[in-house]
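Hi V.,

You were right to ask for the full record rather than a summary. Here it is.
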Amino acid sequence: MTAIRPRTPGELRRSRRPRSHSCWDHLYAAPLWPLHGANLGTLARTCDAVGACLALPRFPWVPEALARGNTLRRPACVHWTGDPLGWLGRQRERGAHVVGVELADEAVRLAELPAARQRTVMVLGHEQNGIPPEALDLLDTCVEIPMVGSGASLNVAVASSLALYRLAGLL
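Predicted structure:
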């Protein structure tokens, strides 16, 4: 039997990007109606891991929550918007595929979600109310994460991490 040897921190550093990515304009995580600032730091870390950008609303508390939660100590690639619905509409006009993480009758199960092959925006709704009805019309696809337990959904940071890894083709 071969012994398992974890990689050293130096080996890990050498195998990864030497710095944060510049805007690749390919994959976006868009929590456009956030409720809890703690989720934004987790999401920033996941975006760094998969090479995605964040699209965030210009709520007064969001920049502080993002800075406080970003454990990478590097600035995340953030695209700010004061108009979430308008921003989503413009992304569709630019040819982006818009995927919403939402429980819906037409939703695709996470395991069936293909990796993003074109510019893709992953939309996340409000932690309690989901994606607003007026934004649902702007989605091309809905994805749901199956649950076996009694809960209705996962924490938004966990759900978005799973979906981003899938869209990035890493799961």
